[in-house]
Design goal:
A hairpin with a 2-residue loop joins β6 and β7. This protein is 17% helix and 43% strand. The chain has 3 helices and 8 strands, in the order ααβαβββββββ. The chain has an 8-stranded antiparallel β-barrel. The termini are far apart. It comes from Polluticaenibacter yanchengensis.
């Protein structure tokens, strides 16, 4: 049963990657202009694919707490690459407050990635080695979709972060 479930999950992941990647060569993803990403965004929703219906997970996303902790957080990406995000949720395990970051984006092959590092007081950004990496699935007008992946109990989980631009 586990083998069938694992194979089904892997096939579903491959199929989803196939459909995401099936754009004509004229529609390959371009690196979004900085002006498309800069601004203030609200993280509206986080969904996870690759989980079986009966599986119970307690995710600690971005070292900030559960999915509910991050929903509604406000992210600021100014043009100078030094931004921040603010978590206002006060539920169990949530780390409410403001976090300063340095952000960037880059193209790797046919994919475009959004990257950020949390800034630590007294430490220069270039000396911080840990950070977060998200595939930019779409940036259009006032909406942005980022994805990250993790493996848990042999399953590939895809986290989808849906943002809305407010400024």
């Amino acid at each position: 049963m586990k083998l069938v479930l694992r194979n089904t999950t892997i096939l579903a992941l491959i199929a989803s990657l196939f459909f995401i990647g099936c754009k004509s060569s004229k529609e390959t993803q371009a690196v979004p202009a900085r002006k498309e990403i800069k601004g203030t965004w609200v993280l509206n929703n986080i969904t996870v694919t690759g989980i079986t219906d009966n599986a119970k997970y307690n995710f600690n996303l971005l070292d900030e707490g559960s999915i509910d902790c991050l929903k509604g957080s406000t992210w600021k990406f100014p043009n100078n690459a030094f931004g921040s995000y603010e978590i206002t949720a006060t539920g169990t395990g949530c780390k409410a407050g403001n976090t300063d970051i340095v952000w960037s984006y880059r193209k790797e092959g046919s994919d475009v990635f959004f990257l950020y590092k949390k800034l630590t007081e007294g430490v220069k950004a270039k000396n911080i080695t840990d950070g977060y990496k998200f595939k930019i699935v779409d940036v259009y007008n006032d909406a942005m979709l980022l994805q990250s992946e993790a493996v848990s109990a042999g399953q590939v989980l895809t986290f989808n972060y849906s943002f809305t631009k407010i400024k």
